[in-house]
Design a protein that fits this description.
With 565 residues, the protein is α/β, with parallel strands linked by helices. It has a domain of 116 residues. The chain is built from 20 helices and 15 strands. The strands form three sheets. Strands 2-1-4-5-6-7 form a six-stranded antiparallel sheet, covered by helices on one side. A hairpin with a 2-residue loop joins strand 6 and strand 7. Helix 7 packs antiparallel against helix 13, helix 8 packs antiparallel against helix 12 and helix 12 packs across helix 13. The longest helix has 47 residues. The radius of gyration is 42 Å and the shape is elongated.
């Protein structure tokens, strides 16, 4: 349910907070007063398209914030998308900021993409206008409407059919991939085996073997120089031909002896003595390490030749199956699976064919059962729609649902259906989209929405001037239908009809005001006295005593009608 919408600098709206209630919310105002701007803002906050020109002149951005009371269906979705503000809260806040460079939408403070906003829009509200009846016009939408009337047991059958169809589709695609001529299968198997053998013989055991080889080859190529440098460094540390009998070790030992002499007179030199002793140990350890390193170096040309050959092989493998060794190893696994699949393709094909045959039988059986259920629902729906249309002044109207069996099952079964009406006696039933006038379509829409109220997850329904062109008894019937629907749904109704406005639970009036050099649209919630004057003005163009008396009679009639519902 929509609780409030706060609009700032959007078109002609400067700064307006509109609060909504449960039940029937009526929005009135003179033609051109700005009611459509309010609806545009509500559409915009839920992802509707808007241009930067919608920003109020002289302002940098427009901002809209809508607060909803979320039902279980919406709360489950918010939890799934990790958009719940608080596990205990049932409030949902959707905010949109529109600037000249673009716009951002936040749900409970989290920035979201257009897909999430679109999903939420469909869960939170539905809009019905005389010029916007897409929910009734297409066979697919009409099929979904009928299925929505069937309840949980019916929906399980619908879901079962869709699941079976998708499984059948996936298996058919897999079978097409396996179906090839024996010659093509053998060619593919031969080439896959060739590639797999090449990769298997390469014995790729590591993703980084090429990098390790590169380091080893670098060492071997420079082994003689490395060995000589290690020997020279060792001699400098511990003595040899190049040191003339004076090594680093000898010099540190002499330094240690001198400092130890001084230690007898100054104990503070103890730390320096320890440092020198440690240095001697380190020099000896480094010398030993250099000797071992030099002895470990392999200068055999044969070893280098082997490593270079291995590196060349890995380079060839990477060029064919890379660019990295990791890619080549992954390719080896893929080829092994492909070889197994090609070798066993005949067996696999037969298994899939058997499964497809079983699925086809089950799918056709489920489709037939679903079709029977739909036809029973269609009979019930037709009677209910005709009953409601009779209340709405279409006494002679016949409403039918025509079924056509599709040549093949689809995700929705084998049914294609279309709503047909015959507004006048003797007139053959025709598709709703081709024969219904605007007023007729509005009443059919209202009738169907009333019937579907109990099965509809959407809590807020907007009716945008669906009563245009109606009068007298028919308007009274529309008023009563809206009252019935407002028991289970929050209704937002834009109307110019005082008969309909009189039954409002929440009465809002939109006005356009002129201030100096600017025009501002405001929205006010009217108290009882203001509501009375508004109804009088709507009925006769003024608030004369006669008009006020008429308005009072409308309110009395509305109260009586609500009491009888």
């Amino acid at each position: 349910m929509l609780k409030s919408i706060h609009i700032r600098d959007f078109a002609l709206i400067e700064n307006t907070l509109v609060e909504w209630t449960s039940g029937l919310n009526v929005l009135t105002g003179e033609t051109g007063a700005g009611k459509s701007i309010l609806m545009d803002a509500l559409s915009a906050v839920l992802g509707g398209k808007v241009a930067p020109s919608i920003i109020r002149p002289g302002k940098e951005k427009a901002a809209i914030e809508a607060c909803f009371l979320a039902g279980p269906h919406v709360l489950a979705y918010l939890k799934q998308e990790e958009l719940l503000a608080d596990d205990e809260s049932e409030e949902l806040v959707v905010a949109r900021e529109i600037s000249k460079s673009g716009s951002k939408v936040r749900v409970n403070g989290t920035l979201v993409n257009s897909a999430i906003v679109s999903e939420l829009r469909g869960m939170l509200m539905t809009v019905h206008a005389q010029h916007e009846a897409r929910t009734l016009m297409t066979p697919q939408s009409q099929l979904e409407l009928l299925d929505g009337l069937g309840g949980d047991a019916h929906q399980k059958v619908v879901d079962k059919v869709r699941t079976l169809y998708l499984r059948h589709k996936d298996l058919s695609a897999e079978l097409n991939g396996l179906t090839m001529s024996e010659e093509d299968r053998l060619k593919s198997l031969d080439f896959a085996n060739f590639q797999l053998k090449e990769l298997t013989e390469a014995e790729l055991l590591s993703d980084t073997e090429d990098e390790e080889l590169e380091r080893e080859i670098s060492v071997l190529v420079n082994a003689i120089d490395l060995k000589s440098q290690a020997l020279t460094a060792q001699e400098l540390l511990t003595g040899g031909d190049i040191t003339d009998g004076l090594s680093a070790l000898d010099m540190v030992q002499k330094a240690l002896l001198e400092v130890e002499k001084s230690l007898r007179f100054d104990p503070s030199l103890e730390s320096l003595v320890e440092s020198l002793r440690s240095g001697l140990a380190n020099i000896e350890e480094a010398s030993l390490g250099l000797r071992r390193y030099g002895d470990s170096l392999d200068t055999d040309p044969g070893t280098l030749s082997e490593l270079e050959a291995r590196a060349a092989l890995l380079s060839s493998v990477k060029r064919k199956y890379g660019p990295r060794l990791a890619d080549a190893r992954h390719k080896e696994l893929e080829l092994a699976e492909l070889v197994e699949k090609l070798e066993n393709s005949s067996l696999e094909t037969e298994k899939i064919k058997d499964e497809l045959t079983r699925l086809e039988k089950e799918l056709l059986s489920q489709c037939a059962g679903l079709s029977d259920k739909r036809k029973k629902l269609a009979q019930s729906l037709s009677k209910q729609v005709e009953s409601h249309l009779k209340d709405l002044g279409m006494d002679k109207c016949r409403f039918e649902i025509a079924f056509q069996e599709l040549p093949a099952s689809g995700p929705n079964g084998t049914d294609r259906l279309e709503f047909l009406i015959s507004p006048n006696p003797g007139q053959p039933p025709m598709p709703l989209s081709k024969i219904a006038s605007g007023g007729e379509l509005s009443r059919i829409m209202l009738a169907i929405k009333t019937i579907f109220a109990s099965a509809d997850h959407v809590s807020t329904v907007i009716f945008d001037e669906i009563d245009t062109g109606l009068s007298g008894r028919v308007l009274n019937a529309v008023r009563d239908k809206l009252s019935v629907l407002s028991k289970s749904h929050q209704i937002l109704c834009i109307t110019h009809q005082p008969i309909v406005a009189a039954v409002a639970d929440n009465y809002l009036e939109v006005k356009k005001e002129h201030k100096k050099d600017e025009t501002v649209v405001t929205v006010s919630r009217l108290d009882d006295e203001m509501r009375l004057r508004s109804l009088a003005s709507m009925a006769s163009g003024n608030a004369s005593e006669e008009s006020l008396t008429f308005a009072r009679s409308l309110l009395e009639q509305a109260n009586q009608a609500r009491g009888q519902i």
